[in-house]
């Protein structure tokens, strides 16, 4: 009897085909969806990206951050600063924001990596507060009350309103696809294997010669850069920025954490499921305001206590499904 | 010159309040390695409970403590035994995320019950009373806050090192399983630790409410101040936490002296500087 080792399963092959078809349909949305639907879908893609990135940090690298709003807001502010004062094209500004965030995240990491576990989490929050208070001091960007993106900059994206809407939709969709694919390919690579080893046991991983600090730093830097890009995209849609909106812990971290926890932390499928659940809840319960947020917090607590692997964890345990083939399987050769 | 001395004195006294924010956080981390993200919101909850008590019974906020302290302690015990005990384990995610969820629930529940309008506890004449000390006017309330902080920390030290309860705390902190074998019910001990922590939080909340106005959204900021005091002072050292609170308070008042917009920022920067220079804090507990 011989056996072979594979990563793909029938579910993952079917999943790939379905995903490719779905992507084609979604990419054509400007031709079939209404204005409001496109806005909502664009928002869903950006939240999905944030959730995937946070999941990579918390679910795989064990870096539980409650301060990712630092980079969302930074990306947004860089979009405004680089287009208004640097004369950059908005897309170039958003990409530059990612680069700047990567550079900035290195010294930040060397400082807050000194804090362990939950204290790391609060440390990231302090950093986000430092960002918020610092940007509130910059009078050229409107200080505490914020500023709007000038009409000229907005027009440079596309001349017509429908053209702009289609472009920001595609940018959001493209960003989500790139984030998911990057995380997926990263996790399949040699470094991803190291990261998964760290997730399962830091002690064992370091015994195998994995440089834990360095691996975590890489994840932190890459995540920060991508998060800043997403932040730039978010505020290129909003067209207005203020320190409180840009560095909101609720909008850019609490919701993202709930999405990942409800969907299933430490899996690639989890953030996707979680995002869909989150928006389904939001669209049905949003009229209830504060009650909706309480329900969301309660659902996250119950999931964490009763099903810590989230919705996708339950599905996977029950049906042995894996849409993103990351694990290796041994199969008997017929 | 005298203004700067004044700012340092104000900051030192403010540090007492931050040490009270931090004491509960430090206590529960010491006993059960739990970092409670909802700690700031619980401080705000205590302030609102104080507000309700003073309005309903028509009493002074200090008298309201007779109601609020046992109430917060009971909430703490129930919270620990009902929810938080289930999150404890080698994985740091569950406690973090559950207390994060709790924080969002508390904030929105307070918003629902009390609206977003800023509220204040009316402390009466004590709020404006001041003592003249060598050309400086020192407020009686800040002075009293600092004295209370010292008394609370001395009290916690006494509980920790001179009572059976404290022996239980130290035992489960050192080794939960062996403590359990020795006849301690760790679930109960953890519940008592959280009850004590939230009783301290009640004092912090009432003092906060008399000093400044508060609204449901300020919990996160108070958590951060408490956390910074703990880290500056050094983990596991309660007197260090008081020193950390003082350093944070002084940094803030000095920052505010330069520009009001720099007040909170200066505190964060002091924290980051300490983290860069002395990552274990200024007075870490000696491991034995």
Write up what this structure looks like.
Chain A is 75% helix and 4% strand. Chain A has a domain at 34-248. Chain A has helices spanning 10-27, 29-32, 35-60, 69-84, 90-112, 117-137, 151-157, 161-188, 190-200, 202-207, 212-238, 243-246, 249-263, 269-285, 290-306, 310-319; strands spanning 3-6, 147-148, 240-241, 329-332. Chain A has 334 residues and is mainly alpha-helical. In chain A, the strands form two sheets. Chain A has a two-stranded antiparallel ribbon with strand order 1-4. Chain A has a two-stranded antiparallel sheet with strand order 2-3. Chain A has 16 helices and four strands. Chain B has 288 residues and is mainly alpha-helical. Chain B has helices spanning 2-32, 39-57, 61-82, 93-114, 140-162, 164-174, 176-181, 186-211, 219-233, 238-258, 263-277, and strands at residues 130-133, 136-139. In chain B, helix 1 crosses helix 9 and helix 2 (39-57) runs parallel beside helix 4 (93-114). Chains A and B meet through helix 6, helix 13 and helix 15 of A and helix 4, helix 9 and helix 11 of B.
Distance between the termini of chain B: 44 Å
Number of helices of chain A: 16
Structural class of chain B: mainly alpha
- Rg on CA atoms of chain A, Å: 20 Å
Summarize the entry for a quick read:
The complex is a heterodimer of chains A (334) and B (288). Chain A has 334 residues and is mainly alpha-helical.
List keywords for this structure.
heterodimer; A: 334 residues; mainly alpha; two-stranded antiparallel sheet; globular; B: mainly alpha; two-stranded antiparallel ribbon; 2 strands
Topology:
The complex is a heterodimer of chains A (334) and B (288).
Chain A: E1 3-6, H1 10-27, H2 29-32, H3 35-60, H4 69-84, H5 90-112, H6 117-137, E2 147-148, H7 151-157, H8 161-188, H9 190-200, H10 202-207, H11 212-238, E3 240-241, H12 243-246, H13 249-263, H14 269-285, H15 290-306, H16 310-319, E4 329-332
Antiparallel strand pairs in A: 1-4, 2-3
Chain B: H1 2-32, H2 39-57, H3 61-82, H4 93-114, E1 130-133, E2 136-139, H5 140-162, H6 164-174, H7 176-181, H8 186-211, H9 219-233, H10 238-258, H11 263-277
Antiparallel strand pairs in B: 1-2
